[in-house]
């Protein structure tokens, strides 16, 4: 099976199965442990509750006929021997202890036959709690034979011959503990086997259903991603809000939209690149052909040409070299702007002074066409915060463009006006104007309204202006009517002193 045929990665399914089985086994083990622990405590509580009055019965029945102490004050061991014989006939696991009122062990038959060192003292706190609640509360007391363990017990106070103390009876002695541990082990074994089998059965059933349910949305997303990978660019995850992994579903849809948009942009850029190459080739071919023609003429007919003809040919050659140089410079500038290799260095500068310099620079060119070039500016000095070199290039292109499309005797005006926190820059001409249907496209590369004016420009001037405006987070607006002229307007942030 190929990768594209798989609906879900096997590694994920295996990990889910392992995690699920471990979780079920952990729950089963915890259940067995807790069940065994509570069952043991339950049995101990029942045993203690049933035998709660054993110590009290011993005192009432045995101490009435004979004293637990001899005349010399020592313990009546014979009495306790008979007592243990009677008690063990009923329950061999019972251990009887005689305690003084301080909890010290005075005597017990089981201590005489014990090889280990027994405890000499029993804590009175559990005994007092047992007596205070009449044996109704489950409480564990010290085991003299095993000081580190606690056992269920029965206890009762006595006062005989002026001596006070307690009868302390361990209800689950060593033998009882051995039998209990053995039975509990067998119970755990049976419970463990049964629980394991049931766990495996239910784990298989629940695991299949759970993994299928948990991975349902993931399978759908995986299939959608595979189809997108195979070329179905329109496919998206339906109803991502209803998915269990909503964030992932939304992220995929957004990513797919971004990829499609980028692909469309790349196609558009590629188309424009081809158009740019074609247009550049055409523009380069024309001045190069002219240059070649005049240079060849100068070479072939240099002896027969007059001095005035030679100068005219050299002037034409020089003009075409300037055109080539301008074209190459514009291509270089636009390519850097298009590749986002230009970072504006914004600083405060006087747009008024820059405008005066540009007007003076283009005065000669305007005068050659008998065009009036003016600066309309209030007396106040307008300061802006922008990249001075980029703004200068934009204004140059706009003024040059205005002069190019303005007829002889026309007028071009550069005006500055402060509006709130911005300075509005307006370049207005009285030229041929722009048809309404062409206005949305004038900032595209090589888009020219007047095809006959192709010889005058390279179709990149306004495109460069648009890129510069984008770098300054502002827009440029064109207002134009055919045969009435055009206005190009943009704003720059005013610098606050």
Written description of the protein model:
This protein has helices at 10-50, 54-62, 77-90, 109-112, 124-132, 174-214, 216-229, 246-301, 307-338, 351-368, 388-404, 461-471, and strands spanning 95-100, 105-107, 140-142, 150-160, 163-170, 347-350, 372-376, 383-386, 411-419, 422-429, 476-481, 485-493. Helix 1 runs antiparallel to helix 6, helix 8 runs antiparallel to helix 9 (307-338) and helix 10 (351-368) runs parallel beside helix 11. It folds into 3 domains: 52-170, Beta-Lactamase (2-Layer Sandwich); 247-335, Helix Hairpins; 344-493, Histidine kinase-like ATPase, C-terminal domain (Heat Shock Protein 90, 2-Layer Sandwich). A hairpin with a 2-residue loop joins strand 4 (150-160) and strand 5 (163-170). The chain is 54% helix and 15% strand. The protein is an alpha+beta fold and 497 residues long.
Number of strands: 12
Strand order of the largest sheet: 2-1-5-4-3
Judged by helices, strands and strand pairing, the structural class is: alpha+beta
What's the gyration radius in Å? Answer: 53 Å
Average pLDDT confidence is 79
């Amino acid at each position: 099976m190929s990768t594209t045929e798989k609906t879900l990665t096997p590694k994920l399914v295996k990990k889910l199965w392992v995690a699920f089985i471990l979780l079920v086994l952990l729950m089963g083990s915890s259940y067995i442990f807790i069940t065994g622990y509570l069952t043991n405590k339950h049995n101990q509580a029942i045993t203690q509750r049933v035998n709660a009055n054993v110590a009290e019965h011993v005192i009432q029945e045995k101490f009435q006929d004979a004293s637990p102490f001899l005349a010399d004050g020592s313990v009546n061991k014979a009495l306790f021997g008979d007592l243990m014989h009677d008690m063990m006939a009923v329950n061999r696991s019972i251990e009887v202890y005689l305690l003084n009122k301080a909890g010290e062990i005075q005597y017990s038959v089981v201590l005489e036959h014990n090889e280990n060192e027994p405890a000499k003292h029993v804590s009175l706190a559990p005994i007092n709690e047992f007596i205070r609640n009449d044996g109704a509360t489950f409480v564990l007391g010290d085991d003299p034979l095993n000081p580190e363990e606690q056992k269920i017990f029965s206890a009762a106070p006595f006062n005989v011959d002026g001596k006070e103390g307690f009868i302390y009876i361990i209800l689950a002695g060593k033998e009882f503990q051995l039998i209990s541990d053995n039975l509990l082990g067998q119970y755990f074994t049976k419970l463990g086997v049964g629980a394991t089998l049931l766990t495996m059965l239910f784990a298989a059933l629940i695991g299949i259903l759970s993994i299928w349910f948990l991975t349902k949305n993931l399978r759908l997303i995986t299939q959608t991603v595979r189809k997108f990978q195979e070329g179905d660019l329109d496919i998206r995850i339906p109803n991502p809000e209803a998915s269990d992994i909503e964030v992932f579903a939304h992220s995929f849809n957004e990513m797919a939209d971004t990829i499609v948009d980028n692909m469309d942009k790349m196609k558009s850029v590629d188309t424009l690149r081809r158009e740019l190459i074609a247009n550049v080739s055409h523009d380069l071919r024309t001045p190069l052909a002219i240059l070649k023609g005049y240079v060849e003429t100068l070479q072939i007919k240099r002896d027969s040409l007059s001095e005035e003809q030679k100068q005219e040919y050299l002037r034409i050659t020089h003009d075409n070299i300037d055109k080539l140089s301008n074209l190459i410079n514009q291509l270089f500038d636009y390519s850097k702007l298009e590749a986002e290799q230009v970072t504006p260095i914004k600083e405060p500068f006087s747009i008024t002074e820059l405008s005066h310099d540009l007007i003076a620079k283009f005065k000669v060119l305007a005068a050659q066409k008998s065009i009036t070039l003016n600066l309309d500016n209030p007396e106040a000095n307008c300061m802006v915060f922008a990249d001075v070199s980029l703004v200068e290039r934009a204004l140059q292109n706009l003024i040059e463009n205005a002069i190019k499309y303005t007829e002889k005797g026309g007028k071009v005006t550069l005006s500055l006006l402060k509006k709130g926190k911005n300075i509005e820059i307006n370049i207005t001409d009285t030229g041929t104007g722009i048809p309404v249907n062409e206005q949305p496209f004038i900032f595209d590369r090589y888009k020219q309204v007047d095809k006959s004016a192709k010889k005058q420009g390279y179709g990149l001037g306004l495109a460069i202006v648009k890129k510069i405006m984008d770098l300054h987070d502002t827009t440029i607006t064109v207002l134009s009517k055919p045969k009435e002229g055009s206005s190009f307007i943009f704003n720059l942030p005013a610098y606050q002193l």
